[in-house]
Amino acid sequence: MAVRIRLNSRQWRIINMRTLLICFTSLVASAALAGEMRILDAHSHHEQEYASIFSCTDALTAMDAAGVDRILLTSYGNKSTLSCFEQAPERVIPFYSVYGSLSDKQNWMHQPGLVERARGALETGMYSGIGEFHIFAEEIDSSVLQGLVEVARDFDLPLLLHGDAAVVDRVFEIHPGAKVLWAHLGTRPEIELLDRMLRRYPDGLFIDTSVRDSFLLGNTIVNGPRRDSLLPEWQAFFIQHQDRVLVAVDTYSLNRWKGYAEVVTEIRKWLAQLPMPVAQKLAWKNGEALFGTTN
Q1: Which domain covers residue 261, as residue numbers?
Q2: Residue 26: which H helix or E strand, with range?
Q3: Which single residue of 113, 246, 260, 269 could bond 62 by disulfide (Cβ 3.0 to 4.6 Å)?
Q4: Does 162 map to a domain?
Q5: Neighbours of 193 (CB within 10 A)
Q6: What is the rounded CA–CA span in Å between residue 66 and residue 169?
Q7: CATH number at residue 39
Q8: How high is the mean pLDDT in each 10-residue block of the chain (295 residues)?
């Protein structure tokens, strides 16, 4: 027999107030946990050109201040990357850069000797991956790109790629078993495109969130006024693809390093608005699964 319970208006108000209090308490607790959560920065740089005024020690201090546990580093010529790795091997994930200098960013895919240089460097066992390298659709037939992907295959290393969807397709055409970290929410932070690509490569494609926090929290040019809450469409995307996204800062300049803590605070702000198990995956668990827990 069904039993009906009738509540008066005062009782309903008490129940609603309790529900709101529980929700509010849960949000506060999530925000507090996000403020203490481990962070693995899955895409950053430290360059030799400013190492004399902002050293590896300074970079590690900036990480400490922001509560960042580990960091993927790459640099022109690789000297700074290896210096930082030697100083803190338990914290630095060194990626091999194909750029000897800034000018190589535009033409590395036309340098035939690059592939063998990369192979020789990776034979040292010092590196955990290759990248960041920039390439777009008009260059996908580059034999140097093919050679570099084949080197990654031979050493079973992930690639940090800054490029468009056509390049991602080409990498997996060359090496179907590749592991690709697609920088900056896929360069074009469009949910429909990212969803399609992640479904197309369910085992090998990952994306980092570097320099896209304004898109996630609202951007006056792209998707409405800036606000402090995670846009619902991105919240749904991160929950759906929670095993494929890695948070990242991208210290592309000295000034970016000087504002490192502020950027990480922004990241923690939107992480706090995800379910805690999802936030932990984006913050560090996915990174450790992709790069390993030790170097």
Answers
A1: 9-291
A2: helix 9-36
A3: 260
A4: yes
A5: 15
A6: 36
A7: 3.20.20.140
A8: 54 49 42 74 97 98 98 98 98 98 94 96 98 97 98 98 98 98 94 98 98 82 69 96 98 98 97 98 98 74
